[in-house]
Amino acid sequence: MLNTLIELQRLKRLDRTGWSLRGLPNGTESVAAHSFGVSVTAMLLADEIASRGLQLEMERVLRMALLHDWAETRVGDMPRTATHYFGADARKLAEGRAFADIVTGVGPAEAAYQALYDDYEQRQSVEARIVKAADVIDLLVQAYALERAGAKGLDEFWEVATAADFQLPPIAQTVVRQLLDSLLAERRKITEGNAGC
Amino acid sequence: MLNTLIELQRLKRLDRTGWSLRGLPNGTESVAAHSFGVSVTAMLLADEIASRGLQLEMERVLRMALLHDWAETRVGDMPRTATHYFGADARKLAEGRAFADIVTGVGPAEAAYQALYDDYEQRQSVEARIVKAADVIDLLVQAYALERAGAKGLDEFWEVATAADFQLPPIAQTVVRQLLDSLLAERRKITEGNAGC
Amino acid sequence: MLNTLIELQRLKRLDRTGWSLRGLPNGTESVAAHSFGVSVTAMLLADEIASRGLQLEMERVLRMALLHDWAETRVGDMPRTATHYFGADARKLAEGRAFADIVTGVGPAEAAYQALYDDYEQRQSVEARIVKAADVIDLLVQAYALERAGAKGLDEFWEVATAADFQLPPIAQTVVRQLLDSLLAERRKITEGNAGC
Amino acid sequence: MLNTLIELQRLKRLDRTGWSLRGLPNGTESVAAHSFGVSVTAMLLADEIASRGLQLEMERVLRMALLHDWAETRVGDMPRTATHYFGADARKLAEGRAFADIVTGVGPAEAAYQALYDDYEQRQSVEARIVKAADVIDLLVQAYALERAGAKGLDEFWEVATAADFQLPPIAQTVVRQLLDSLLAERRKITEGNAGC
Amino acid sequence: MLNTLIELQRLKRLDRTGWSLRGLPNGTESVAAHSFGVSVTAMLLADEIASRGLQLEMERVLRMALLHDWAETRVGDMPRTATHYFGADARKLAEGRAFADIVTGVGPAEAAYQALYDDYEQRQSVEARIVKAADVIDLLVQAYALERAGAKGLDEFWEVATAADFQLPPIAQTVVRQLLDSLLAERRKITEGNAGC
Amino acid sequence: MLNTLIELQRLKRLDRTGWSLRGLPNGTESVAAHSFGVSVTAMLLADEIASRGLQLEMERVLRMALLHDWAETRVGDMPRTATHYFGADARKLAEGRAFADIVTGVGPAEAAYQALYDDYEQRQSVEARIVKAADVIDLLVQAYALERAGAKGLDEFWEVATAADFQLPPIAQTVVRQLLDSLLAERRKITEGNAGC
After folding, report:
1. Measured distance CA(E15)–CA(F14) in Å, rounded
2. DSSP for residue B125
3. A171 touches chain B (CB under 8 A)
4. In this predicted structure, what is the pLDDT of residue B145?
5. Which among D15, D77, D82 has CB closest to A26?
6. Residue E186's closest CA among E148, E156, E138?
7. pLDDT at residue A195 above 50?
8. pLDDT in tens, chain F (197 residues)
9. Chain B positions in Cβ-Cβ contact with residue D196 (cut-off 8 Å)
10. Opening angle at CA B52, ends B51 and B57, nearest 5
11. Do residues E128 and E120 lie in contact, with contact meaning Cβ atoms separated by under 8 Å?
12. What is the pLDDT of residue D194?
């Protein structure tokens, strides 16, 4: 277990490449900080969805959110364009093998972690799709927070906010849609304030 | 829900004061990155403990780990010495009220979050004590990772590694003790290598 | 004396929390850098005020400005919201006790430093009120410098620029008011340029 | 040409992942800074080798050194372990396609840049092998500079210093060997000073 | 040769003062990263110019670009205003002597490096003037990249974009002019978007 | 006055070059933070000296400490080696002219600031010499704090600790000597602990 914990410390220092490539300062967001954001978002999202009547395995949601980026300790935080050049399948395969090596010897839950990772990668369960939505939402809330502090040039991230289809059941889809819409409304306030006319 | 998510983004940027006060560079570890570390450590720890026969409410463990530091968005990451000057009770009270304000209006799970926070602060359940142990272990694994990269002057953190009593039931206590002992053994390798004689 | 000097080095690394919480990069401003700004502002302000006929104990002004934030080595740079949750009195008490411990054993001037600190905290003398005005002015000049370099989302800091009443005698009040007004005028140039219409 | 220049700016901000993963601070070394180091090292190395009688196409050396890492604007700075999971061939293929896209439309020298990149990737010419040696030497001189400033945990980088075989002709091999040996000697001074016995 | 390589590592960490003085974060651009940008720009520029029929010694261009800022390891990255106070001649003299000391003992190419440096400083050859143009262009492309990411207050840098006369022969002058014009056009897109009317 | 305050903000961001050139991270210490350290050290030093019977103009000490580095907003923080290449006289002359321009129009105290600056530069008064001693002591206490946190390669700074002669009267000389000796004793504890034998 200790080896895994030591290795995962690396995520606290690893910069999210997307911000660096767009000219934001080093240290803008670590992979660990993003994983925290995704986990918290997934918890709030799932609690809201469950309260509206969709039954969810909450423990799976939280576990998946916490472990979905572990492979980056060995593969790095590859920019989106990298997927274009490697191919989405090759990337999934490589990250899957890295994840498998990381959890090897972690203890009795090794197989369970692997199953959760596979579910997330294949987006089979509702829980996996909610975590994916949380992944996107945390990215956008971070982008919003950066823009509010003065950052520019992040428009391309926002395209997903209108286009994304997470293949969620209606109740979940409604919650995600409402959250994204209220985020877009908040953003309009600052971008319009920006233009200032 | 959105307001809470936006506010919690602040934890991604907030430096853990302990490292800054000991002369390590800004950006060494954010509160969000630490919360991720605590959550992952709690998950691995609890899975190991459960596999040895102690029944645990896993969902509670994960939720508590994720939310235990939220109050820092309003109170900041106070150094240990601050507790000495404010008093432990005053600190708990202030952080508790900050937490309550943060989750106000977060949605249907508001009361549940508050109950989890209170449990953690009072360390009543086994789950809360395991999260506290995870909090300390992630601190020490981070200290180890920094020392391995050349940092010095962190000895005082390590005193807790031998002294800490988390009031855990025997099975859990054994797992935590073994993990701490193997960490201390890893550390000896680098501090001895340091001395190099 | 050496122990105090070593402890105060910590202020060079401690980030001013206000900027981090608003999404600006780590390292934006240290407490030591701010204390320098306050001291310089206090010197210029007091010299201008004195030249208009108000007699001031200049040495007190400079000493108070230099030592007013020392307690932060032990209590950290608490965000404003923290005062809300701890209460202004509890905060003053805690910082006062931290300051007392820091100067214990510093040498023959220990009592004098304590008296200056108490005066500043209670804003009894004109000198203390001028240092407080300098504290606010340096904050605003820093905010202006950040905005000029592209930062946004700092509006709430500027409210104090119109509202602040430092309880100063007329001559001092006029100087402070003129300085704040010319700062607000400079700021309008960049925020209007921003809007760009 | 402008599009390429704008895209290559990204290398100035992109952190070399190897240092981050080993716990060194963000901003330790950018890809652009490393490319500068490789180019300068290649120039000095090639001049020394040429002065001993081996004829070299100096212009090729300099061009190859300058462009060998351009693909990282799209693929990121992948850690070594990533190569293990993707396979060295897949990585070369992906980086080669990214490079091709970057130089598309750069102007009349497009084909020349592509040929230089291919030569470097296949290490066919002596010039390509000298640039590869410069790539490794700059990495080690950087590691030495970091260790001299207090960094630890970089031992694995140094294994290549004794093991590396760059397939160079005898004159070039001698120069590289001498340079590496004198670097190892410098390093011994600080690691022994470290141990301090 | 090793001593020179070790000393030049310093350029990877040395911040370009111009950005710091305008309130941008530490680590915005190192001297080494800028030197890389200048070298790449010079290569692309010279290749374009050569393709239009002006004969150039390409090797000289690349060498000059790589070494033109080496003196900063000993003299620092002085802000423009420093030249005003020291005098341009005194600055050239000091940097020239620093460069001479850096390359002393570097090996057989020492005299060649010195000649290239002197040519660059005196802008005698067409090659030197192209490198100077590349120096300015990389500065402006960096400024553009920063502005696109939200930076403000960099207007004074752009004055050179319309005013600069690099004393180039017509073909080269045309290429530089076209590049600067297309950069100014790109910039207008973001500054107008900024104003947003 | 406002223009001067805005310009001096730059010192909060300007890195002390000495640390960067020795491989420490950007942001290690700003010029403003150092000026704060010098001012505090000068205050404590002067109070101790005065308590032993040497009469001092305390206000002069504090003012000189606060303003002695202002010229760096225009000239930058030049490394020591730069003085070698420019000559100490040329450097003093340039910094003196920069200082004069900075305080032009600052208000009624302009001449007084200029006189204090000139006194400091010429080290005529006891007060000026005490500030110079404080300048060196703050440098060494910072070096000690960095070494305690793991930094290496700072030995050359410490030579001054045994060699420095500040031309102080006996009482002042004794106080400075005692402070330096106790600092050297503290340092021996960590360097010996380092060697660990």
Report:
1. 9
2. S
3. no
4. 97
5. D15
6. E148
7. no
8. 999 999 999 999 999 999 999 999 999 999 999 999 999 999 999 999 999 999 999 999 999 999 999 999 999 999 999 999 999 999 999 999 999 999 998 989 999 999 999 999 999 999 999 999 999 999 999 999 999 999 999 999 999 888 788 999 999 999 999 999 999 999 999 988 654 33
9. 196
10. 60
11. yes
12. 53
Query: Which ipTM score applies to this complex?
Result: 0.96
Please choose, from the candidates D65, B90, B187, the residue with its C-alpha nearest in 3D space to the C-alpha of residue E36.
D65
State the pTM of this model. Answer: 0.96
pLDDT along chain E (197 residues), means of 10: 97 95 95 98 98 97 98 96 95 97 94 97 97 98 98 93 90 97 96 57
Measured distance CA(F133)–CA(F166) in Å, rounded: 6
Query: Nearest-CA residue of chain C relative to A196?
Result: C195
| DSSP-based three-state secondary structure for D146 | helix
**What pLDDT is attached to residue C196?**
39
Find the CB nearest E197 among C28, C150, C196.
C196
- CB of E151 less than 8 A from some CB of C: yes
Contact A126, A172 (CB under 8 A): yes
Neighbours of A59 (CB within 10 A): 18
**How many C-beta neighbours within 10 Å does residue B35 have?**
29
C-alpha–C-alpha distance, residues B134 and B141, integer Å: 10
Give tens-digit pLDDT for A24-35.
999 999 999 999
Instruction: Give the pair of three-digit tokens for residue C118.
Output: 């108490």
**A129: Cβ–Cβ under 8 A, 6 or more apart, which residues?**
A123, A166, A167, A168, A172
Q: Does B23 touch chain C (CB under 8 A)?
A: yes
Identify whether the C-beta of residue C87 lies closer than 8 Å to the C-beta of residue B90: no
Neighbours of E197 (CB within 10 A): 10
Q: Is B90 on the interface with C (CB under 8 A)?
A: yes
D44: pLDDT strictly greater than 50: yes
On whether the CB atoms of residues B41 and B138 are closer than 8 A, the answer is: yes
Phi, psi values for residue A55, rounded to 5°: -80, 135
- Count of A-C CB contacts under 8 Å: 31
Q: Is A15 strand, coil or helix? A: strand
Cβ atoms of C160 and C18 closer than 8 Å = no
Q: Do E75 and F95 touch (CB under 8 A)?
A: no
The token pair that represents F175 in the structure block: 């106080």
Q: E48 and D1: CB-CB below 8 Å?
A: yes
Q: Could you report the per-residue pLDDT of B11-60, keeping only the tens digit for each?
A: 999 999 999 999 999 999 999 999 999 999 999 999 999 999 999 999 99
CA distance E194 to chain A (A): 6
Three-state DSSP state, D185: helix
pLDDT for residue A194: 52
Separation of alpha carbons D190 and D186, rounded Å: 7
Q: How many Å apart are CA E109 and CA E107, to the nearest integer?
A: 6
Helix locations, chain F, DSSP H? 2-8, 17-21, 31-51, 58-67, 72-75, 80-86, 88-103, 110-122, 126-148, 155-163, 170-195
